[in-house]
Amino acid sequence: VQLVESGGGLVQPGGSLRLSCAASGFTVDDYAIGWFRQAPGKEREGVSVRSRYDGSTYYADSVKGRFTISRDNAKNLLYLQMNSLKPEDTAVYFCAKYLASWGTWDYWGQGTQVTVSS
């Protein structure tokens, strides 16, 4: 199992980025997949999760209305579209796979840096 994030970078406030998470060794349609982030000196926080079962989505209050999670089952990819970015969105962003039987996020990507700055 492997998760590889890409799409991070430097963007000005108000700009947009789309992060991708390429999954291998499993099918994204069979598991809940989520996006997390960790800013310097802060704990990792959940950003968005897409349910395995009904496609329902969760967003942290801080990103609601600005970020959108989606997936491409044919390509086995997960996306995070980030619009109206703010300096406080600066962080390393990770995708992770959820193992329901253990109630844990069992596989994580290496992360991709997002920096929002003018």
Task: Give the class from helix and strand content and strand pairing.
Answer: mainly beta
Report how far apart the termini are.
37 Å
Strand tally: 11
Mean pLDDT: 94
Largest sheet: 7 strands, mixed
What share of residues is helical? under 10%
State which percent range the strand residues make up: over 45%
SSE arrangement, N to C? EEEEEEEEEEE
Shape: globular
Radius of gyration: 13 Å
Contiguous helical run count = 0
- Give the low-pLDDT segments: none
Describe the protein's topology.
Elements: E1 2-6, E2 9-11, E3 17-24, E4 33-38, E5 45-50, E6 57-59, E7 67-72, E8 77-82, E9 91-99, E10 104-108, E11 112-116
Parallel strand pairs: 2-11
Antiparallel strand pairs: 1-3, 3-8, 4-5, 4-9, 5-6, 7-8, 9-10, 9-11
Describe the structure.
It is a single chain. This protein has 118 residues and is mainly beta. Helices cover 0% and strands 53% of the residues. The strands form 2 sheets. Strands 2, 4, 5, 6, 9, 10 and 11 form a 7-stranded mixed β-sheet that branches. A 4-stranded antiparallel β-sheet has the order 1-3-8-7, with no helix packed on it. The protein is globular and about 40 Å long. The termini are far apart.
Give descriptors for this structure.
118 residues; mainly beta; 7-stranded mixed sheet; 4-stranded antiparallel sheet; 11 strands
